[in-house]
Amino acid sequence: MRVLILGGTGYVGAAIRAAYAQKGHQVTVVARHPAREISGVTVVSLDVLTGNLTGILSGMDVVVNAIGIIREQPQAGITFEAMHVTLVERLLEAIAAVGVSRLLHISALGTRPGAVSRYHQTKWRAEERIRQANARWTIFRPSLVFGGRAPFFELLAQLTRLPIAPLPGSGQTLFQPVYRHDIARFLVSVTEDDTTVGQTYELGGPKRYTLTELYDAVARKARRHPTAKFSIPLSVMGVVASLSRWIPVPITPDQLTMLMEPNITDDRRWEKWVGPLTPFEADWD
């Protein structure tokens, strides 16, 4: 099959790209500023917000949208509204014009009507656009993703190197980290499975962790003893996060909101395609 991946050079997209290529599919990756050639993959340079999506979709059997941002850069036009909603609207128009038969869309766990964070609000509106479209779609909502240099866990690793690590609030928020290559294998497995058309899957790993437990798990992965921690009141964290509009602090108000919300799921349906899920404690790249 001919597979087009938007965001195929990103953290999750790279795993998806590799999984399709490994199965012998013809993979084309769209990137705004491709840094290098990728063996066995066609790379197209295109700004997905302004470029001709119809042209690159022509002749494709499957399109995977793995584009998403966790932090806005308004001065560069990179906002939640643009990258989550406007992009999906443009993509659906191009799909309708060209007639691509399959759309696989990466959303996020926690996406729901009435969400508090703007990240989840825009993810929800994107999902709604897809559900209303005349397309053979499947939506995937992963929890925190790990494997390789996962941005969130890279930050935790840096914090665990400190003599005392800062802990937002009580540290008891629950998360269910999921392996990026498990997600990729799932997408490849269901690409031609009609039973998954029109379905939304929530993707969580095999074990739930509090934020405190994730700190300790990250330290153990780095072969360090669990770091001592001190709790920072949410009111103080909110003030720090608000500074992100002017200076590069580690967390934004939107990220803080999500960090305080449970990010777990009881959806186990996807395991029948993937098999046993990879635990966070396992050896992984």
UniProtKB/TrEMBL annotation:
Ranges of residues in domain NAD(P)-binding: 7-193
Q: From the Swiss-Prot or TrEMBL record, what is one GO molecular function term?
A: protein-containing complex binding
Entry superkingdom: Bacteria
Please name the InterPro entries in this protein's record: ComplexI_NDUFA9_subunit (IPR051207), NAD(P)-bd_dom (IPR016040), NAD(P)-bd_dom_sf (IPR036291)
Entry-linked Pfam families: NAD_binding_10 (PF13460)
User: What CDD domains is this protein classified in?
Assistant: NDUFA9_like_SDR_a
What is the name of this protein?
NAD-dependent epimerase/dehydratase
